[in-house]
Automatic annotation (TrEMBL):
Organism: Lophium mytilinum
Domain of life according to the entry: Eukaryota
Domain (Heterokaryon incompatibility): residue spans on this chain: 55-200
Classification via InterPro entries: HET, HetReg/Transcr_Mod
Protein name, as recorded: HET-domain-containing protein
């Protein structure tokens, strides 16, 4: 894609905060005889951000590097990605010049020093643009109709009129099936799969969404999503509203919410990078996993959304010698220095094949990462190691591969059961669910820490990782009712083939992943990672919300196995026993 670009790029002034802009010539502009009338003509202009020309910034997916189109740039024919060329073609005017910023052409991708500097400015480039266009690609799959009806839904102050209009347009309710498929394809477009668009979409002052020649404003998309979120009993035809829903819509909803939240904040009010990375990279309930062509960009692409980037001054770093493993480990060091001990709950296994082995204490953001079983730390109800103890935590790095921090070795894994790893998008397997509950019950019955009267209650709490907080005085009855209802439903499903009812308890079971029930040497019952082994130890780090499973690796060091739930220590109980606090090296 970058062939024959020698001499095309002149150095940008760092002091003047220069960027390049595509000066897109109008159709009426003079063109040499040998250049087809259909080829876009442009020049690359330097512009200082201190006094920039008004420009449109494009947010788009690069697409396959094999699919290119010709464009005349400064009197030389260049090849650019077909998707960028299609976006520029939509902006092409008959008589007026248009200034556009698109990273593929405006940044010298072969100059790593320039790329580092330009990437560090990208937040400002999109923030300062006169407008940002989120380019979803050429029109296809009824995309014009989808954007038209998004606009119509956004105009609704009440639900009835829009519902009837849509039904009139489609003729019959059954015909909405075509729009259901079209809307699903709209939500699955390549644009939404690209990680960089999160920052570009979020920081823009004026944002438009374009697909082919159709264009809507961001506010129209946001209001349409509000309409689709209306309760079923409010709308005239709830089946119609359901037709405009998609499992792939989860990411778009989150993106809209993030933009709205960001636009209300500034400076120190912005979330820390740790929270931004988690919100951007952790898979949603639809298993969505955003992509980047460079694995290092899984951190670099969201830097601009954080309020503490000053603590990560080495980023971005595109040096050829800097691997993505280096970037993830350096990010983990930064998060740990800030006191984010529960970064460990994002260290999930098995890991992808890498050029070298990453430290187990650094999350591998290149691999699909699921939400922790105990929830994100800022939402977690647990306080296993946080009761008046965060100030006592001291984190150091003895060498480039290790981290040392204070913790308490609570117990050792004695025995464990089968793996519980349900599909989030499918109904629960009734037989597997009953087996899972039976194994937990057996461990509770064998435990000296669980009384006979509490076996069922503890089983219920362990089975869902105690994901539901105590919201009433009769929380015991609440748990037992939910548990017994689920067991009855599983038996009916297994014996009679009936569908399992979706309840808060069955949902709690379904949201878990990669768990095994286990019992410790002294009788603690809990859930641990599915790859734990007998002899692994349970640890509570000072300042951590949840316990962790560690594996002794010799000479007093450990490797991290993963997050755990251990009934009886999740709310700081272990800290009340004057425990032996040790310096643990991972």
């Amino acid at each position: 894609m970058n062939q024959s670009r020698n001499g095309l790029y002149k150095p940008l002034s760092v002091i003047e905060k220069e960027i390049r802009l595509i000066r897109l010539r109008p159709r009426s502009f003079y063109r040499p005889e040998q250049i087809s009338d259909n080829v876009l003509i442009c020049t690359l202009e330097h512009s200082s951000r201190k006094n920039a020309i008004q420009y449109t910034a494009l947010s788009y997916a690069w697409g396959s590097g094999n699919e290119t189109r010709p464009i005349l740039v400064d009197d030389t024919t260049q090849s650019i990605g077909a998707n960028l060329e299609a976006a520029l073609r939509e902006l092409w005017d008959d008589n007026d010049e248009v200034y556009v910023w698109g990273d593929q052409l405006c940044i010298n991708q072969d100059d790593k020093v320039e790329k580092n500097h330009q990437v560090s400015q990208m937040k400002k480039i999109y923030e300062e643009a006169q407008r940002v266009i989120a380019w979803l690609g050429p029109a296809a799959d009824l995309s014009d109709s989808i954007l038209f009806w998004i606009r119509q839904m956004s105009k609704s102050e009440g639900s009835r009129s829009v519902t009837i209009d849509i039904l009139d347009h489609h003729g019959k309710l059954e015909n909405l099936a075509f729009m259901t498929e079209a809307f699903d394809k709209f939500c699955q477009r390549d644009y939404w799969q690209r990680l960089w668009i999160i920052q570009e979409f979020t920081v823009a002052k004026e944002l438009f969404i374009a697909c082919g020649g159709a264009l809507i404003a961001f506010d129209e998309l946001a209001k349409a999503l509000d309409f689709l979120n209306l309760p079923k009993w409010v709308v005239e035809q709830p089946d119609m509203v359901e037709a405009y829903k998609s499992t792939s819509l989860t990411f778009i909803k989150g993106l809209v919410t993030r933009r709205q939240r960001y636009q209300l904040r500034s400076g120190d009010q912005l979330d820390p990078l740790f929270q931004v990375v988690v919100a951007s990279l952790v898979m949603g309930i639809d298993y969505s996993h955003r992509e980047t062509s460079d694995a290092r960009d899984r951190i670099f692409s969201v830097l601009g959304l954080a309020g503490d980037t000053g603590s990560f001054r080495s980023f971005p770093d595109y040096a050829p010698t800097t691997t993505y493993e280096d970037v993830y480990e350096e990010a983990a060091r930064g998060f740990l220095r800030q006191g984010h001990v529960d970064i460990f709950c994002y260290c999930q296994f098995p890991r992808t094949e890498t050029n070298r082995r990453m430290a187990t204490w650094a999350p591998d953001w290149h691999a699909p990462t699921k939400k922790p079983n105990a929830d994100d730390p800022w939402f977690s109800q647990f306080s296993a190691g946080t009761a008046q103890s965060i100030a006592a935590q001291s984190i150091t790095f003895p060498d480039s591969d290790s981290v040392a921090l204070q913790g308490i070795i609570v117990d050792e894994v004695k025995m464990f059961g089968s793996t519980w790893n349900p599909d989030w998008l499918s109904t629960l397997d009734c037989q597997a669910a009953l087996d899972y509950l039976t194994e937990i019950t057996a461990f509770c019955e064998d435990s000296p820490r669980v009384s006979v009267d509490d076996v069922q209650l503890v089983t219920a709490r362990v089975a869902i990782n105690e994901r539901v907080a105590y919201t009433s005085e009769d929380w015991r009855g609440f748990y037992l009712k939910g548990y017994n209802s689920a067991v009855d439903s599983f038996f009916d499903g297994f014996q009679l083939g009936l569908e399992v009812a979706e309840t808060w308890f069955t949902t709690g079971m379904k949201l878990l992943h990669s768990r095994r029930p286990f019992i410790s040497k002294t009788g603690y019952v809990g859930l641990g990672p599915d790859h734990m082994v007998k002899g692994d130890v349970v640890c509570v780090f000072l300042g951590a919300k949840t316990p962790y499973i560690l594996r002794p690796s010799g000479q007093g060091a450990y490797t991290l196995v993963g997050e755990a739930y251990l009934h009886g220590i999740m709310h700081g109980e272990i800290l009340e026993e004057s425990p032996d606090v040790q310096t643990l090296v991972l």
